[in-house]
Every structure is written in C-alpha cells, then in structure tokens.
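[09:14] KT: can someone run the structure on this one? pasting the chain below
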Amino acid sequence: VVAAWASVPFPALRGYSLPDTLCTYQQDVPWKLLSSCREQKVSCCFAQSVVLRGICKESHISCPGKQPASLLRACESTEEVLQRYLRTLFPGAFSTSHVLEQPCSTLPPYPQFFSPLLTRQGFLLDKPPSYSSAAVESIPVLAALQSSPVLHTLLYSLYKDLQKLNMRRWASFFSAGVEQEDFQEALQQLRTLSQCYEMGFGADGSEDEADSD
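[09:31] RB: done, structure tokens below
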C-alpha cells in the first residue's frame, strides 16, 4: 500500500541549481499529500519511489570554483543529488529515484491557474514581473509514492468507517454473493493491514478501547 504525493509545479527558482532548491527543504519535503488522510506530514517512511521531471542535467552545478557548502552541492549528477537528499531526509528507507529532463506540458487546454511568479517554463521568480507574463507552457513536477506511517491512519480510518455501517440495510450487497462472515473477515484483515504501518506500540491500547466502545 502506498500514499501519493506531488509537487505541481516543483518549487524551483529560476537560475538556481537543484541542490540550492533542495537545501531550502531540509526539515520538510517539497511535495504535498494527495491521498485522503488527515495527516499531512511524514517524518519517516519505509520505502518510496520518486520521479522529478523538468530539471536539466546541468542543474546540479552550483557556484563553480567554490567549495561546496553542502553534500548535495558536491554531487556529480541530478540523479545523485535527489538520491542523496532522500537518503538524508529518510535514513534507512529504501528509495528509488529518477530524473527526467522533459517537463510536463501545460499548453491549452491545460488550465492556466498558475501564479504570476511562474516563468513560461514553470520556474519561480524572486518577485512579480513588471509586465504581463505569457502563459505557462511547461512545469517541472515531482511525484512520489511512499509506504509510510501515514497509511496507518488512512487504513484504520477506513476500517472504522466501514465498521459503523449497518450492513443489514444493504440487502442487495449480500444478495450478490457476499456472506456476512466474509465481510467481517475482510474488515478484520483491513485492521490488521493498518497495524503493519504503525510506528511504536502506544496506539494499540487506545484503538482496542475504541473498538470495545
């Protein structure tokens, strides 16, 4: 089970390298949760697959001739920059990453709901332009699929919602061949699955008490 995250567009400043951009997100990730879940931040994850599009191969270069200010700036490629960033932010997690130069096209009929701070190529400006900017033609995008503790909340919430249903009101559901015992078994399997993504042991007691209520 994975949760989907994305950054549309990826918040890269025009003229800044990828290490410069990622160095501003040392305490938090530059993407937002897309899956339906109350928790919006991830402090750790078990495994993840990340794809970054629209970043050229030369964007890992930062301040040529100067001593690198961080390990990210010492990397030799954009792929290495992203991989090292993920290892630093999520130590111990299994991470795969890919960097593609081709950006995502936003030509018509793609809706133009972007900020005036975006250039035509989807990079951020330091300040609004003094002239009316042209439509955004493409954007860099970062997308991630993560197996993380967020899934515990998501799956357990689904289990609690299904548990509240009075299935006797849905006779047609069982007339299709599903047995009440099979449904209850699937419900317990869902709860067991949610516990696979739980960190620590503090929540078990509170969940059991809630179930007995």
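[09:33] KT: thanks! Confidence is low (pLDDT under 50) at residues 201-206.
[09:34] RB: yep, looked fine to me
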